[in-house]
UniProtKB/TrEMBL annotation:
Species per Swiss-Prot/TrEMBL record: Bombyx mandarina
Keyword Coiled coil included in the entry's annotation: no
Annotated gene: LOC114248493
Catalysed conversion reaction: L-seryl-[protein] + GDP-beta-L-fucose = 3-O-(alpha-L-fucosyl)-L-seryl-[protein] + GDP + H(+); L-threonyl-[protein] + GDP-beta-L-fucose = 3-O-(alpha-L-fucosyl)-L-threonyl-[protein] + GDP + H(+)
Localization annotation: Endoplasmic reticulum
Cellular component, GO, one term: endoplasmic reticulum
Protein name: GDP-fucose protein O-fucosyltransferase 2
Primary localization class, coarse: endoplasmic reticulum
Catalytic activity, EC: 2.4.1.221
Organismal lineage: Eukaryota, Metazoa, Ecdysozoa, Arthropoda, Hexapoda
Entry's family note: Belongs to the glycosyltransferase 68 family.
Signal peptide start-end: 1-16
Gene Ontology biological process: fucose metabolic process
Alphabetic keyword roster: Carbohydrate metabolism, Endoplasmic reticulum, Fucose metabolism, Signal, Transferase
Pfam family name, one: O-FucT
């Protein structure tokens, strides 16, 4: 009986395939449902300017997820799903061996993302494809205005341009293409984007390139935090980090009391933003200061960093001389081959999120994401919004983006 119904369903599927104008099967569960949703469903793809890193991209995701969620609550864009752009050749992920685009599920809990917005992985769209190529109807390539303050006013506006420099990467896939590219100068809130989609009302596969250009409508409001909360890392990563905290740092609760978390950003920050970050010896002094003043009974420091092996060693030796236990996340042999840089960075973030006290790097999105996580966990904000200061000169306090429930 099971066999017969499978064959029967397959037959209908073939029928559905024949009847399909754009060649996509949207649901594998029900053939009838497939027929219906096929004609209705639309997909919103987006991409981000290649140099932008993982943690800024997480914020761009939130803008798109919030856009769709808000619109759908108002009865608009009902037929749309948001396609999660695979992670491909990220600038900071230097040692990443896997050159294949990485799906979001490798890092995030997809069910949790879905609880906030109708998201789907790109490979799921591929799986539903009955053709050899995925054809996007229109790509809207966004560009900044040359002068954002034209007439001394920052206005929300957009206008179609003749042309623009743009080489589509399609997240590293060679079998995706587009029918049309429209260049648009864009400035302002992301809720203005659906106006663009009116240019081609019947498109089913829409893509926004340079998706970092539109801004949040309301940064830090209740919806923002609801979306942020749904951006959970997947169970596997959460477990690995939790085990590390338990075994190496001797803490088995969420709000640990026995270690300091530090995000010590070096590399490009040390080179180009030396006015904002300390030297290695300045870092030692500041860590010592925090330990003495904020955590007098604590001996353990966990450091998340992109510093070179040499710099790590110097910092570690100096802190150990002062009597502290210093930890970096060092992947074991099995993990080295399995994990890419992105995975290790996430583990470091989770570990910093649970620290008794956290100090980060000025204007680093890696630091921002840790601060948000700590707000969600319920740490007092004083233990979270702290930064390493430059050795000399001004040290502006970090903005406090506190959670809104
Ligand atoms: C495009 O290529 C990828 C990787 O080679 C493959 O997994 C995917 O199924 C292909 N997509 C289509 C629509 O054939």
């Amino acid at each position: 009986m099971k066999l017969i119904s499978t064959i029967f369903c397959n037959l209908i599927l073939i029928n559905a395939a024949i009847n399909t104008e754009n060649g996509y099967c949207v649901s594998k569960d029900s053939c009838e449902e497939t027929k219906n949703t096929l004609s209705d469903k639309k997909w919103l793809f987006y991409d981000v300017n290649p140099p932008e890193g993982f943690n800024l991209r997480r914020d761009v995701y939130m803008r798109f997820a919030i856009l769709l969620s808000n619109e759908q609550k108002r009865g608009k864009l009902q037929e749309f799903g948001l396609v999660l752009p695979p992670w491909y050749k990220l600038y900071h992920w230097k040692t990443t061996k896997k050159r294949e685009p990485i799906p979001w599920g490798n890092f995030f809990d997809i069910e949790s993302l879905k609880s906030f917005a109708p998201v789907v992985e790109l490979y799921e769209i591929f799986e539903k494809s009955l053709k050899k190529q995925l054809i996007i109807d229109t790509i809207y390539v966004l560009q900044n205005y040359e002068n954002p303050f034209e007439n001394d006013l920052f206005e929300d506006k957009w206008e179609v341009q003749e042309e623009c420099p743009y080489v589509p990467q399609y997240w590293g896939y060679g079998n995706i293409t587009a029918n049309e590219i429209i260049c648009v100068k864009f400035q302002g809130k992301i809720s203005m984007l659906p106006e663009l989609f009116q240019l081609h009302r019947n498109d089913k596969f829409i893509m926004v390139a340079q998706g970092e250009i539109p801004l949040h409508d309301n940064y830090g409001d209740r919806t923002y935090w609801k979306c942020r909360k749904s951006m959970k890392f997947n169970k596997k990563l959460t477990e690995i980090a939790f085990n590390y905290v338990k075994e190496k740092l001797n803490c088995d609760t969420e709000l640990c009391k026995n270690y300091l978390g530090v995000h010590w950003r070096r590399q490009d920050f040390a080179k180009y933003r030396s006015k904002d970050v300390p030297t290695t010896s300045g870092t030692v002094k500041q860590i010592q200061n925090i330990m003495q003043n904020k955590l007098p009974h604590v001996q353990t420091v966990f450091i998340a960093t992109d510093a070179s092996a040499k710099e790590r060693e110097i910092l570690q030796n100096n802190l150990e001389t002062l009597g502290y236990n210093v930890h970096y996340y060092v992947p074991n042999i099995a993990e080295v081959t399995e994990f890419d840089d992105g995975t290790i960075a996430i583990l470091e973030q989770i570990i910093c999120s649970h620290a008794a006290f956290f100090v980060g790097t000025h204007e680093s999105t890696f630091t921002f994401r840790i601060q948000e996580e700590r707000e969600l966990l319920g740490f007092p904000s004083d233990t979270t919004f702290n930064r390493l200061c430059p050795d000399k000169g001004n040290c502006e306090k970090p903005s406090r983006w506190t959670v809104v429930n």
